[in-house]
Structures are given as structure tokens and as C-alpha cells.
Amino acid sequence: MVVYEVNLAVEADAADAYAAWLGPHVEAILRLDGFVSAAWFAVEPDAGPGGDGYVRWCVQYRLRDRAALQAYLDGPAAAFRAEGQERFGGRFEATRRVLLLREAFGER
Predict the structure, then answer these.
(1) What dihedral angle (degrees, nearest 10) is formed by the CA atoms of 60, 80, 76, 62?
(2) Which sequence spans correspond to the domains of the chain?
(3) Helix, strand, coil in percent for the chain, rounding step 5
(4) 3 state DSSP class of 70
(5) Count of Cβ atoms closer than 10 Å to residue 101 Cβ
(6) Torsion-angle region of residue 106: left (phi > 0), alpha (psi -120 to 50) or beta?
(7) Is the pTM of this model over 0.70?
């Protein structure tokens, strides 16, 4: 199993519109071959005074294997990213990372 993680920082005043777009966006990605499931997490703000004006989310996609992720990255990923930029360009930042399962413990 592979986890493809997308961390988002969305300007607070664009967060509702982005959230309305993000759910269907995740569902569309899940229809691609090799994607197994996804989870959308709210990231708690760091402790400290004030906020920075961003809402932070993390979306973790679970894929069958690394080859499925590579097929996504080599193919439809650019179009999916472009859609977000067209709608919300400059209103969010996204970082990504790939997690390769080393060992699982106690999942039920």
C-alpha cells in the first residue's frame, strides 16, 4: 500500500468554496484505477496567539501500489492540479508527499 498525502493551506475567506469543490475532486480521483480510499483531515492550528488567515487540511489517498501512483502522476495528475489552480489560483498552497508502508500494527 502507498499513501499519497496532499497538505493544503487555503485562505480562510476561500475555504468554504474550496471545501465545496474538494469533496467532488477527491471522489473523482477515487474513480481512477489503483486508488482504494481517501480521508480528509482538518489540521489543528499550532498553539500560539492569533491565526495566519489559513485553513489547513490534509487529504490522504490510499493506493494499491507505487505503480498506480506513478500512473496517476504521469497521467491525470496535471489536469487535476490545473483545475484547482484555475478555480483558486493564488488562494491556496499545496504540498505533497508519498508514504510507503513499511509495517502495519493493530489496524482493525
Answers:
(1) 10
(2) 2-100
(3) 35, 35, 30
(4) helix
(5) 9
(6) left
(7) yes
CB 18 within 8 A of CB 54: no
Indicate the class that CATH gives domain 2-100: alpha beta
Q: How far is the C-alpha of 56 from the C-alpha of 43, rounded, in Å?
A: 5
**What are the pLDDT tens digits along the chain (108 aa)?**
999 999 999 999 999 999 999 999 999 999 999 999 999 999 998 755 556 889 999 999 999 999 999 999 999 999 999 999 999 989 999 999 999 999 999 977
Q: Please give the grid coordinates belonging to residue 7.
A: 497538505
Angle, in degrees to the nearest 10, between helices 77-88 and 15-30: 170
Buried b (16+ CB within 10 A) or exposed e, 56-79: bbebbbbbeeeebbebbeeeebee
Whole-number Å distance between alpha carbons of 86 and 91: 11
C-alpha cell recorded at residue 45: 492550528
